[in-house]
Amino acid sequence: MSELNEKTREVQVTAHDLPLACPRPGAPLWARHPRVFLDVLKAGTAACPYCGTQYQFTGERPKGHH
């Protein structure tokens, strides 16, 4: 389950949230922008180029991903 820190716009994601796209499902209409897929597994973190939200991967990596 993802966790959002409203002040810094940091979101922790797990293998359950993959593939990761921003904006996340259920985002309010005012927070929507074109959907972009982010590779959070490569470095453990990824930033959305539209809104700047920082995503951090936590937990066990899914099997079969490199």
For the largest sheet, list the strands in their spatial order.
1-2-6-5
Q: Indicate the mean pLDDT.
A: 87
The total beta strand count reads 6
Task: Label the structural class.
Answer: mainly beta
From the alpha-carbon coordinates, what is the Rg to the nearest angstrom?
11 Å
Largest sheet: 4 strands, mixed
- Stretches with pLDDT under 50, minimum 5 residues: none
Tally of contiguous helical segments: 1
Which outline best applies? globular
How much strand content do the residues show? 25-35%
Topology order in helix (H) and strand (E) letters: EEEEHEE
**Oligomerization state of this entry?**
single chain
- The proportion of residues forming helix, as a percent range, comes to under 10%
Instruction: Give the termini separation.
Output: 22 Å
Structural features, described:
The protein is mostly beta strands. The chain has a domain at 1-32 and 57-61. The protein contains one helix and six strands. The strands form two sheets. Strands 1-2-6-5 form a four-stranded mixed β-sheet. It has a two-stranded antiparallel ribbon with strand order 3-4. A hairpin with a 4-residue loop joins strand 1 and strand 2 (10-13).
